[in-house]
Sequence to fold (282 residues):
Amino acid sequence: MTSDRYLIRPMTRPELDIAIAWAAAEGWNPGLHDADCFYLADPAGFLMGFLDGEPIASIAAVQYGDGFGFIGFYIVKPGYRGQGYGFALWQAALDYLQGRNIGLDGVVAQQDNYRKSGFQLAHRNIRYQGTAPATDATSRCVSLASISSNLVIDYDRQFFPDERGEFIQKWGSHPAHYAVGMVHEAKLVGYGVLRPCEQGYKLGPLFADGAAIAAEIFHTLVAQVPVGELFYLDVPEPNSAAVALAQQNGMTYVFETARMYTQTAPNLPLDNIFGITTFELG
Fold:
């Protein structure tokens, strides 16, 4: 729809806080410091719709590198839904990412609607929830800050469709996040990040060169969660070892998303992705 009353433009950094609050109200349980990191990924890629100057809709359409984009934070405030405002914002997001392979993590019930815009299902992602146990586990993991940022960026690049070095540096070094890696013979073989959320904590990403390494990083991160607090892990369902890691540690299914792309699904090593970074940004 088009209207002189309805304006779509990139969010300012404070306006991203509004979208984060909407996500919390929807039960998406965002991280307490997500906006600081998200906005750095692509300041022009967070769009907001304003009706008579009032913010009523949001969407993230983040550009990565030269060829990839990811859509998330697609929210229309209750009371303004079903009137075309969200669809206009959706079209603006697709226009901003035109020519790129675009990914999203959408609720399964919306798959048919996303297909109408050219998205095809790649796989399901499953969110698991656990309760932190008391633990005194030892670990070979080291602080991610002690590892060369170039080493971390190069390692991360294996698991993501395009370059996101500036974002991942911020994600792993934010003072409120707990990030660790494992190094073997001067080579990074896995890393993970834990962050506080509106409710509990989320682990993500969790990338590793095998299930045993992933498990050690997982336990190192979970040991930082206060006993009895909830924590969450989002795993790609095709990685059976990741599903087993969650289930063997008493985690239970919460919900799932449909990972979809407009072009051929990127050739990512799903068997080494034990936790995705975030549903909102991929």
The first strand starts at residue 6 and ends at 10. Residues 105 and 279 are 6 Å apart (CA to CA).
